[in-house]
Amino acid sequence: MSPTLEDLAHIERRLNLKIKPEEVEDYLQLITATDNAAKAVMEMPDYTPVVDYERFPRTDIHVPKDEDNERRGWACKATVRGAPEGILKGKSVCLKDNICLAGVPCQFGTAVVTDFIPDIDATVVTRVLKHGATIVGKATCENMSHGAASFTAPNGPVQNPYARGFSAGGSSSGCGTLIGNGEVDMGMGGDQGGSIRIPAAFCGLVGLKATFGLIPYTGIMSSERSLDHTGPMALTVKDTALLLQAVAGYDDLDDRQLGAPYPSALPNYIAALPSPDELKPLEGMRIGILKEGFATKYIAPDVKAIVESAIAKFTELGAEVKEVSIPMHAQGGSLMHILNKMGSHQARQGRSSAYRGVYVNEYFEKLMPWDQHKWDTVHSFVQGTSVSGEYAFTNYPTVYGRAVNIVRKVKHDYDAALSDVDVLVMPTVPITARRHAAPDAGLLECVKKTAGIVDNTSLINGIGHPALTFPVGFGSPDKEDILSPEDKTIRLPVGMQIVGKWWDEATCLKVAAAWENTWDWKTGQRKLD
C-alpha cells in the first residue's frame, strides 16, 4: 500500500508543519520514494554474525519452576559447553538476560515481548565459550534493563542472597543473587548507571564496569549507546580478572570500541594481580579518597564507617592515602538523569541511529509500535523514563547535548585528579540493600526505594573510566526496613568502588586483590598466613 494523504497529514502534525497546498502532491511523491526504498531494504535478508551451533550446541533449554528458582535469579536455564581447554575451563557462567544467546529465549526483564528468541550470539558469548566456560543460563534482568532495584522483572522480585525480602540490586539482579548464593561461578552483567556494581555491592561480589568500549557490546540489548557497558561479576578478584581477560578487546563490529586494543594486545590482567604472600603489594602507590563520594545526603553512617575503615587498611599494604576533591562529581545526578532518560526513551522507541554495529532488529520488530497494553505491561520505571524523556525533548531540545558536553568536562576533572593518584576510592553505594517495594506500590514509592543508590556509580558510565566494586564488610538495614526485632540482626554487604584511569583495569584489579588477599571482608580480620 502506498502512502496516502492521511499519512502526510500525520507527519505534518508530528513536525508542527503545514505543507503548502500546491506542494502536497510533490511531498506525497517524496514519501512514496522513501516508502519504496524502505520496502526494498526490508525485503533484503538481514546480515548478522553466524552462530557456530555445531561447535557450541544449546541443550536443556527451559524456564525453571518456582520451586527450583527460589530467589528468582533465573530467567531461563540452558547448557552450552565451551571449548575443552582455556582460561575459563571448569567455570560456570550466567548471562544477564539482555545478552543474546542464540536459540535461547531472551525476556529482557519484561512481559511486553514474550516470544523473542535471538538468532545471534553476543560477542562476549562466543569468547566465553572459546575460553572453555560452560554457560548455564540467562540470569534475571530488571524491566528492560532499567532500575537499580530488583522488584521490576515479571518473574521477580529477585532476592538478596543474604536476606530474603531485600533487594539484590539492579539491573543485573539475577547475576548478583546466583553468584552470591554460589549457584554459578561468574557472570556477565550489564551497566548503564551502576547495574553491575550495585548488585555486586549488595550481594557481596566483585563487579567491574570496564573502560567504555573495552568489552564489546555487540549482540546485547541497548538502553543508551553512550552509557552501555557489559562486564564481569564474580566472587573473587581473580575470577573477575579471568573473565575480563576472556571477553575484552575490539571485535571489529562495535563502534563503541574505537580505540580499544584487540584481544591479542590486551594487558595480562591475571599477571597484574599481586601474590598473596607479598607484604607490601601496594608499595609506592597513591590512593585518592574522593571527598564528594562520601558527601551524598543518602550515605548511611555505618556504610561510611565501614568503607573508611577499609580504606585505612591500604596504608598497611604500602600505599599512600590522601583525600581528593572533584566538585563536579556532585552534579552527576542531574547530568546522568538527562542522558539516561532521553537516551533510553529514544532507544525504546526504536529510533536508534548513527551506529555502525550489529542491530538486534527482531526484538524491536516485535516491540513496535507501543500501545496502551504494552505501556500497562512494563514497569512504571520504564514508563516513567519515556514520559520524562519525551518531556525533556519537547521542552529542552538541546539539554542532551549540553549534558554530553558537561560530562566531558567532568571526565577531564577525573583525569586531572588521576594524574596525581593511581586510583580513586569511595563507597560503591551509599546505603545497604533496601526492602523490596510492595507489589502494588506506585511509581513514587518505587522511586523512594532506590533513592541515592546511583549517586556514586552513574556518573562513571558517562565519563567512561573503569570502576570496580569489591566487598569490604557488612552493614545494617535502613531503619525503615527493620520491621521486627529479628531484623536488627540482618547483615548486608557493603562495597568499595575503585575508579582508575582509562584502559587501566589492571591497577583497579591489583588494588582490590591486594586488599582481598589480606583481609576477610566478612569478619574484618586479617587472613591467617
Note the main sheet.
12 strands, mixed
Oligomerization: single chain
Structural class: alpha/beta
**What is the strand arrangement across the widest sheet?**
1-2-4-3-7-9-8-13-14-12-10-11
Rg, alpha carbons: 23 Å
Written description of the protein model:
The protein is α/β, with parallel strands linked by helices and 529 residues long. The protein has helices at residues 5-15, 24-43, 123-130, 173-180, 197-203, 237-247, 301-312, 332-348, 361-367, 372-377, 380-395, 399-417, 443-448, 458-463, 505-518, and strands at 59-62, 74-81, 92-96, 134-139, 159-160, 163-167, 186-191, 206-209, 229-234, 286-290, 320-324, 423-427, 467-475, 492-500. A twelve-stranded mixed beta sheet has the order 1-2-4-3-7-9-8-13-14-12-10-11, sandwiched between helices. A two-stranded antiparallel sheet has the order 5-6. Helix 4 packs parallel to helix 5 and helix 8 (332-348) packs across helix 11.
Ordered list of secondary-structure elements with their pairings:
Layout: H1 5-15, H2 24-43, E1 59-62, E2 74-81, E3 92-96, H3 123-130, E4 134-139, E5 159-160, E6 163-167, H4 173-180, E7 186-191, H5 197-203, E8 206-209, E9 229-234, H6 237-247, E10 286-290, H7 301-312, E11 320-324, H8 332-348, H9 361-367, H10 372-377, H11 380-395, H12 399-417, E12 423-427, H13 443-448, H14 458-463, E13 467-475, E14 492-500, H15 505-518
